[in-house]
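Running co-folding for flavin-adenine dinucleotide.
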Amino acid sequence: MTQTQAFDVFVVGGGPSGSTAANDLARNGVKVALLDRAGRIKPCGGAVPPRMIRDFDIPDSQVVAKITCARMISPTGRKVDMHINGGFVGMVDRDRFDEFLRERAAKSGAVRLTGTYVRLERDDAGTHVVWRDKASGEEMRTTAKLVIGADGARSQVARENVPGGDTIPYVIAYHEIIKAPEGKSGIDYDPTRCDVIYDGRISPDFYGWVFPHGAHASVGMGTGHSDFDLKDATAALRKASGLEGCETIRKEGAPIPLQPLDRWDNGRDVVLAGDAAGVVAPSSGEGIYYAMVGGEVAAKAAQAFLKSRSAADLGMARKLFMADHKGVFRALRSMQDAYYKSDMRRERFVSLCHDKDVQSLTFEAYMNKKLVSKRPLAHLKIGLKNVAHLMGLVRPEWT
Ligand SMILES: Cc1cc2nc3c(=O)[nH]c(=O)nc-3n(C[C@H](O)[C@H](O)[C@H](O)COP(=O)(O)OP(=O)(O)OC[C@H]3O[C@@H](n4cnc5c(N)ncnc54)[C@H](O)[C@@H]3O)c2cc1C
């Protein structure tokens, strides 16, 4: 085993969370290593909000499509087009996006390492990360004051080091990257519109999607039901959308965590970020923005820890995150619990999307990651409609 140079912080995982943490730390003069195993594109729909693009200085060249309409499709095939006035949903391709973030961290001063995390070792000299170098196949040992576990869903760092890290619940999401059906007649496909399909045959507990990505599109679905056939459901979704004949470029799936951990650190030398900490928005499965925020707060906690050498400072990562996002996570969890249960509920949910206030408040909340409180009457109206739908007091409405 080869002993390498030592670092202040060793980040395991170079996805959005780990790369953001490494970038922030390096920019602040911290000696940081960023390890990623490389070689696999993260399966992901790639939908991101404008706030992420703004807050994390994402260049326009990374945004391969700007979506200005979301079409909600109900179990009976009813469609509600929600137009995003004055805004958009951005689409990034994860092969280019993740590499851009890793390279940005390296330009800021992080040392990029390519290989696989193996385990942590601890002795009187401190904490050591054992990892296997991809090029040589050799085991390396790197000493660090702190380890950031940003190695994604089912994180090995979390499982081995943080209470609850081995029991985070998941849905499995699967998608197919296809060539976009440019100009093909008879296909209702629009490169500026994403389709969100609420239908128990496509997903009994989540949803299906068609996300345009310029020359390509992501078509997929997610479910927590282990006996549900994800490939069959995606084939059915492609058929229903008229996309079955499009060339398939990749087929891939991965877990999406459902529940943020109660603790993100081990009270000693490890703090988690992003999917590793279970942080993905309920209802939508949106995780890229939250992973980047997770990386940002992990970097803040790391700097406080390096200064004070008090492990209590590691708790700052979760505290900072929850202070900003707990409300949105709660609201989205309630929505998922209420409406993703049966086709009748899904029908009502899509019906509710007709409401112009629902549309504008939803997109304002999505784009800016804040629950909008400036229009109390609109909230009251939506709340009452919500209750009426859940109690079956009104029939689903259609224009
Ligand atoms: C099918 C699907 C569709 C999705 N669609 C969307 C979407 O449209 N919008 C959205 O916002 N979110 C979406 N998500 C969720 C989103 O992809 C994740 O929440 C996000 O990628 C989390 O970022 P992360 O950095 O925490 O983890 P990841 O992106 O998973 O990055 C973890 C990194 O760690 C590395 N790694 C893992 N293990 C090791 C190891 N042992 N050694 C070294 N390196 C390691 C991996 O190579 C990877 O680069 C989707 C997820 C799935 C599965």
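Result summary
The first strand starts at residue 2 and ends at 3.
Residues 12-18, 35-37, 42-48, 98, 116-117, 150-152, 156, 173, 175, 220, 254, 256, 274-276, 280, 285-289, 291 surround flavin-adenine dinucleotide (CB under 6 Å).
Job closed.
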